[in-house]
Amino acid sequence: MTRSSAPTPQADPLPVHPAFFAGSDAVVLAAPAKLNLFLEILRKRPDGYHDLESLMVAVSLFDTLEMRAAPNGEITLTCDPATLSTGPDNLVHKAAAALRTRANRPDLGAVIHLTKRIPTQAGLGGGSSDAAAAIVGLNQIWKLALTREELVAIAAFIGSDVAFFLSLPAAWCTGRGEITTPEPVDRGAGVGPYFVLVFPPVGISTVGVYRRLTVPQEPVSGGRVRAAFRARDAAALGAAMFNRLEEPAFAIEPVVGRIRERLGRLNPAGAMMSGSGSTVFAPCRDAREAHSVAAAFTDSRPADEPESRVLVVHGFTP
Fold first, then answer.
1. Is the distance from CB of 178 to CB of 163 less than 8 angstroms?
2. Is the pLDDT of residue 300 over 70?
3. Is 34 a catalytic residue?
4. Among 24, 42, 277, 314, which is disulfide-ready with 249 (CB 3.0 to 4.6 Å)?
5. Which of these is catalytic: 34, 63, 94, 130?
6. What is the band of 10 on the pLDDT scale with cuts at 50, 70, 90?
7. Residue 43, strand partner residues
8. Buried b (16+ CB within 10 A) or exposed e, 227-240
9. What is the pTM of this model?
């Protein structure tokens, strides 16, 4: 397979995803996970959602979508693992249906296979990333030629975080998360920070976290974390990170709070939970420190703490 290309970034956002040509009517896309380096809640909206501010970055942990056009007008989704839903509640299926409706082409069909590596209920945006990759890939193989702006509008309809995955590798996200402003990234300086990811053996319901949330009277500003990210300063980044959802999440699953505290004691640049949990992460100054922190975290697990999966990743730059 050879890497696919797009006419222009404005007309087709394919360059934001690792993509491989698989025939004239097929494509394979990698869908990256994200971390929230900052997440503050500004207010509750009349529609029940919350206005927020968040700095999101993509990291080198990927799901994979294999997509092929089908002539029968049906959308068929299979998943690995097979325990995942393949019906209309799956965001990939929802994305395909929404794209077809936007194009007014009910005759379009697709066979899609999703391989999941990003944990669910982990605050890593795996489902949203899969949906964005489906929009991008199907726009190509169905030859719809919808613009990036049109695809972003579809993404906002599907879910709050989906639009971010059309703005890779980093973005400042506002509204309910669907309004994205790409953050400048020095592509010539490498892939960015290294992170230790800790996946506790529990998931946390986003709905449950927001039910317990107390909206602050004076929101924390994201100016410091954005400056640290742009300066590629891991120590400053770790000191400036903030997540308003930690407190309600730790109330639901105290073990996640314990893991966050223990990871921070190993002296990485910082430690925090991503999104509404349950993944805890630590930015590190380089790859050597990341692997050292990961090993120390695994080796120091108390007997009464359930075993977590630990992974070292880096910031993903397409």
1. yes
2. yes
3. yes
4. 277
5. 34
6. very low
7. 51
8. ebbeeebbebbbeb
9. 0.91
